[in-house]
Write a structure and sequence with these properties.
Layout (H helix, E strand, L loop, with lengths): L6 E8 L8 E7 L6 H14 L1 E9 L2 E10 L2 E7 L21 H14 L12 H17 L1
Antiparallel strand pairs: 1-3, 2-5, 3-4, 4-5
Length: 145
């Protein structure tokens, strides 16, 4: 596959079967000029089927595995790690030798219950660092004007 803007669809799978650990990046995927009908057809069919597409593409001379999935009546393209790009979790210390009492478990579960929500509300979270940088840049712009 040579470097181009083509995406080669390989198979359609249930999105629920993809572990998020394989996601690397996400991009909005729009319809190319002249591809509006194909884009709409693919999007609608994927929404109805409940499936995502695994595909291959070439970016900056590198072949990449990607996952395409419907999102807000359009498509997202996730670049994916291949299996050999995922660290073996057995190499990570997970505190197996730590002794935890029943009381500590009860307290930890109580804390989770106190902080629990039934929905993910991304609007409640802000990138405060970004906001500070933008405010700083705006302030600098005022000073240098």
């Amino acid at each position: 596959m040579e470097g181009n803007k083509n995406i080669e669809l390989r198979e359609f799978i249930p999105l629920s079967k993809v572990d998020p650990v394989f996601y690397e990046t996400v991009n909005y995927l729009g319809a190319g000029e002249g591809g509006e009908k194909a884009y709409r057809l693919l999007t609608d069919a994927m929404i109805k089927s409940g499936r995502a597409a695994l595909a291959k593409t070439v970016t900056r001379g590198k072949e990449e595995l990607v996952l395409i999935r419907p999102y807000q009546n359009g498509l997202l393209l996730h670049t994916m790690f291949c299996t050999n790009g995922i660290r073996d979790f057995n190499q990570v210390r997970k505190g197996e030798t730590a002794r935890v009492s029943e009381e500590e478990n009860r307290l930890a579960l109580g804390l989770i219950d106190q902080m629990a929500s039934e929905e993910f509300a991304p609007d409640t979270y802000r990138d405060e660092h970004r906001e500070r940088v933008l405010a700083f840049l705006q302030e600098k712009g005022k000073v240098s004007s």
